[in-house]
Design a protein that fits this description.
mainly beta
Length: 106
């Protein structure tokens, strides 16, 4: 079982990023997210997924939240207190073209 708590927001790159801390017996995780931007990491995988939100985030968000995660830090208590971090470095409007054939898992 896990519990989640809202913690103070912060402004990153001019956007208001909300924050959640999630805890369980296995881990503690803090992540910052926003719905203010029109891009989602999950958009890259829409053809692969039947749901609008990834399985990893289902416990914390509703599909209508449509979050973009900017930073995440997770401490894994079962794996010798391993810390995993992910941080978005920049948010720039840029047109990109992806070829499905370049990605074997898609």
């Amino acid at each position: 079982m896990f519990r989640s708590y809202l913690i103070p927001s912060k402004v990153i790159m001019g956007f208001n990023w909300k924050s959640i801390q999630a805890k369980s017996a296995d881990f503690v995780m803090v992540f910052y997210y926003t719905s203010e931007v029109k891009v989602r990491f999950s958009d890259l995988f829409k053809t692969q997924q039947k749901q609008s939100i990834s399985n990893a985030l289902k416990n914390y968000f509703k599909a209508v939240d449509n979050p973009l995660m900017m930073t995440m830090a997770m401490k894994d208590f079962k794996n010798k207190a391993t810390v995993t971090t992910m941080k978005g470095l920049d948010l720039v409007k840029k047109l990109n073209e992806f070829k499905k054939s370049d990605y074997a898992f898609m």
